[in-house]
Amino acid sequence: MQNSTLRFIDPHIHMTSRTTDDYEAMYKAGIVAIIEPAFWLGQPRTEKGSFKDYFNSLVGWERFRSKQFGIKHYCTIGLNSKEANNEALAEQVMDLLPRFVMKEGVVAIGEIGYDDQTKAEDKYFRLQIELAKEAKLPIMIHTPHRDKKRGTTRSMDVLEEMKAEPYMSVIDHNNEETVKEVLDRGFWAAFTIYPHTKMGNERMVEVLKQYGPERIIVDSAADWGISDPLAVPKTAALMLERGIPVEHVQMVCYQNALTAYGQSGQMKESDWLDSKGIDTTELFEGNSVLRGQRLDSPDENKVIK
Ligand SMILES: [Zn+2]
Question: pTM for the complete prediction?
Answer without folding.
Answer: 0.93
